[in-house]
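Internal tracking record. Fields below are filled automatically when a chain is submitted to the structure queue. Please do not edit lines marked as system-generated. If the sequence contains nonstandard residues, flag them in the REMARKS field before resubmitting.
Queue: standard
Priority: normal
Entity type: single polypeptide chain
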Amino acid sequence: MSSHKILTTIGIMLIIGTIANLSEAEAPPATPRSTDGTVTADQPSGSAPNDEPATIAIPDLSHLEANEARMELRALGLRIDVDKEYSKKRPGTVLGVSPGEGSELGAGSKVTLVVALAYPKVPLVMSDGAGAASSALRKAGFKVSVKREVSDAPAGTVIEVRPAAGSPLLPGRTVTLVVAKEAPASPIGSNCHPSYQGQCLDPNASDYDCAGGSGDGPLYTGLVRVVGYDEYGLDSDNDGSGCES
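SYSTEM-GENERATED OUTPUT FOLLOWS
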């Protein structure tokens, strides 16, 4: 065989080998099969299937203000409700969270922040009369107690508020109004009760009732001013006048 034919034959064989190698490199990898011939899933070595949705753990929010806590929870993909609770802590402070810290929730779940709300303050009522002061305090959400004390101020004037105006106080608590009353007048003779003016009531009587009323006496009186301890219970509405009707 001539050298020209030999070289031609060698070239053809090299081309055929190159094509075979390229075909083998481009072929897709064989599908993994088990020992019984069934096809198995292709997954990374050492991994296991996991279809559970991701959860979000509620972080510690106790060191944050309400706005900061809301931003952090929104960034985690949670929805927020806010409840306010009266507290002596700084208004806006996060008092708690529900579900609590560490709870795991799905994305889009709702979380409730409990945020501090300042106590209301006792209003200023010193310039008002007892009736107007009582109304203002009740409107502000407080209960009212009236205590009368002898004073040089005009009778019926509010001379003190306990606790003082401007004090923070939980709604529903009692505010005491101290209201001025006149000092008892000197008794008219030894036979008049010092707690009553306008009528001379016997201090030794067992009881008095208002004339024309339903009481059974044994003694009766008309309109009197109550300036001390109301021993006979004539001032039923505690306004300083007894038997006014």
